[in-house]
Every structure is written in structure tokens, then in C-alpha cells.
Design goal:
Layout (H helix, E strand, L loop, with lengths): L6 E7 L4 H17 L4 E7 L4 H6 L7 E6 L4 E4 L5 H7 L13
Parallel strand pairs: 1-2
Antiparallel strand pairs: 1-3, 3-4
Length: 101
Amino acid sequence: MLKEAKYRLKLYVTDHTLRSRRALAQLRQLCEEQFPHDYVLEVVDVLEHPEEAAAHRILATPTVERVLPHPIRRIIGDLADVDKVLAGLALQPLGDAPGSK
């Protein structure tokens, strides 16, 4: 039986722009470095799925939404600063888990 992922993230992007590709690459790198094999990442193109963007009140891209664990948290814009992304989404990086030290 497969272990359930600790984090479920959604990245909302606009088409395949440089900014969207950069955000996806930065988020994937962050996830693989900080909690490999412990996350699920879904990418939603708001031009292809405007109804989903509207339902989740996505007004700007790129937007990352931490879907699980609850409560939902969001961060909008540049994802280059790992510490800000981790803090903004309240993600616990590898090695910071309780009992890991």
C-alpha cells in the first residue's frame, strides 16, 4: 500500500509563459529538495480551466495553493525565495519535522 502524500499543492499558471515555466521549475525543485516523495503537485492552466480558477478565486498567476493539510494557504508570484515560500505556505522542510533532531 502506498503512503499518502503529506502535502498536496496546486500551481495555477497562465499558458506556457516563461514566468509559468519558471514557477513550475522552482516549485518542483523546492519540493524535491525539501520533502521528496511526500507531495503531490497539480498544475492548472487558468486559460484552459477558467472555471476552476474562478471557483478558487485565483486572480493572479503564478499562484501556489497548499490544499492539504488544511487550512488552505496561498502564495502569489515569484517562488525563488525558498524560505518565503515555505513560510507562506506553512510547509515543514526536511529535517524540521518533530523528533527529527
